[in-house]
Every structure is written in C-alpha cells, then in structure tokens.
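2024-03-11 09:14:02 INFO worker-7 job=invfold-0412 stage=load source=structure_tokens
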C-alpha cells in the first residue's frame, strides 16, 4: 500500500481520526456528567445547609383556651385604676359562682415565679419592687365562664383582670428567646432586631449541642396569641416581638443557653417554658 493509499479517505474506509474523536467524545461526555453531578450535589448540599439554619414554623396544635383568670391589684399611682386591697378583691371574686378556688398569691411568691422563668443579664436592672404586686388566681368551670367573671367584676375599683390560658408552647419547647421589637423598651434593646440578627441567633442555637429544634413565632402569630391573653388591651403588630422557641434533648440546658443568647445583638431577654 502506498503513502497515497494510507492517507486517502475512501468511501469504504474509516479514517483513523474518527474512532479517536468518538472515544474522546464519550470521555468528554462522561466528564461533563460528572461535573454536573458534583455541581448538583454541591448546590443541593448548600441548599440543605441553608435550610438547616432557618427556624421552623410553629408546630401544629390547637390554640389555648381560657381555663382561669388572674386579678392583679392596683397600687398607688396606677393610672386609671384606684388602689384596692387584697382582702376586698378576694371577697369579690369569691362571690362569683363561675370562679373556682380563688387564691391570694403574695407579692414575694409572684417575684419568685418570675425569677424562676425569666432570664436576664445580671448587669441589667431588675424590675422595681413596686412591680411585685399581690395577685388573685382562680379557675373557671368552663372557658365560656370568663365572660361571667368579667361581668361580675365590672366597675369594681382596684383590679386589673386578665384571662389565664395555658401556654401554646407548653410541651413543645423549653426556652423562648425574645427579639427586640420597635415599641418595647427592654433594657438590652436599642432598636428593633433585624432579620440578620435573628438569623444569627438561629444559626448559633443550631450549632449548640443538645438543641433539638428551633421554632420561629413571627409577629402575626405572636399578635394572635397576645390577643388571646390580653383581649382587653389594644395591641398593634409593632408592639409584638419575634420570638424563637427552642426544644432541647435535655431541658436542663435551657437556662445556660438562654443566658448565652442575651449576649447576642437584637436579643431582649429569654424565658424558660414551664
């Protein structure tokens, strides 16, 4: 065979370059598929990582219903509420048939309960002694009986009446972290918390050992709950804080974590769920 025959591409002969091209096309396609797969896995991994840093919505559950009420006594200087005595108010509540087992809670017990739940920075001022006021607590025969209690105490001086509801978060979380809101004056708050500050708190919580879940109670849901607890108080969404609720593998970790969160920008205070 001559050099001319070796270099001539006849109709019935396959040139030496074509098999090379086909082989390398297959290799290139394999490489491209591998690159795309790695990119997809990498993108998916980043997406899952990003999702893992976001808080979860509140768990599904029925909203709480009124199972009792609290009467806080007005003190000297309370605007629009004349001062009353514990004995007189307790006697008023006892005359209401729908009120079950009215009990006087002394001011020092009110303070003790507050200290058990609320976590504040030790460097911040605690509430004034005047804020510890005796309360009267009572149950109800049924949720609809709260209206009868309101009617029975209407116009009576010296009292601030509030419904008592079980916490929506009872049994669902162990700690709440309250973000600063626009119209709330927590000592640690200089301005309303930003979304970036909230996300930083979520990311830090998810890094901590023993944190099982982080939920976000956004402002609309918080306003809905607040209106259940404070139906007589006009509330706007600007007065409601975003709140993060944390569930732990070991609830005993909640107080230490709540204390740590106080050092993060945008956090007003934290509270144990009891």
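2024-03-11 09:14:09 INFO worker-7 stage=emit residues=274
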């Amino acid at each position: 065979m001559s050099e001319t025959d070796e270099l001539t591409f006849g109709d019935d002969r396959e040139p030496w370059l074509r098999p090379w091209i086909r082989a390398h096309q297959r290799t290139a396609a394999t490489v491209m598929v591998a690159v795309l797969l790695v990119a997809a896995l990498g993108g998916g991994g980043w997406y899952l990582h990003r999702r893992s840093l976001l808080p979860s919505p509140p768990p599904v559950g029925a909203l709480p219903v009124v199972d009792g009420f609290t009467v806080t006594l007005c003190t000297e200087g309370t605007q629009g509420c004349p001062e009353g005595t514990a004995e007189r108010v307790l006697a008023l509540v006892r005359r209401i048939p729908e009120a079950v087992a009215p009990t006087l809670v002394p001011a020092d017990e009110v303070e003790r309960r507050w200290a058990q739940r609320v976590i504040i920075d030790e460097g911040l001022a605690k509430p004034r002694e005047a804020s510890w006021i005796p309360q009267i607590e009572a149950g109800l025969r049924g949720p609809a009986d709260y209206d009868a209690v309101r009617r029975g105490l209407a116009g009576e001086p010296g009292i601030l009446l509030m419904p008592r509801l079980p916490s929506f978060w009872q049994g669902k979380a162990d700690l709440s972290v309250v973000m600063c809101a626009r119209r709330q004056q927590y000592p640690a708050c200089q301005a309303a918390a930003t979304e970036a500050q909230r996300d930083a708190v979520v990311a830090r919580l998810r890094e901590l050992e023993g944190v099982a879940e982080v939920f976000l109670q956004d402002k609309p849901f918080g306003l809905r709950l607040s209106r259940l607890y404070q139906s007589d108080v006009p509330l706007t969404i600007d007065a409601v804080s975003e709140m993060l609720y944390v569930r732990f593998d070991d609830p005993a970790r909640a107080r230490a974590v709540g204390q740590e969160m106080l050092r993060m920008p945008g956090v007003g205070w934290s509270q144990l769920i009891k």
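2024-03-11 09:14:09 INFO worker-7 stage=report msg="The chain has eight helices and nine strands."
2024-03-11 09:14:10 INFO worker-7 job finished
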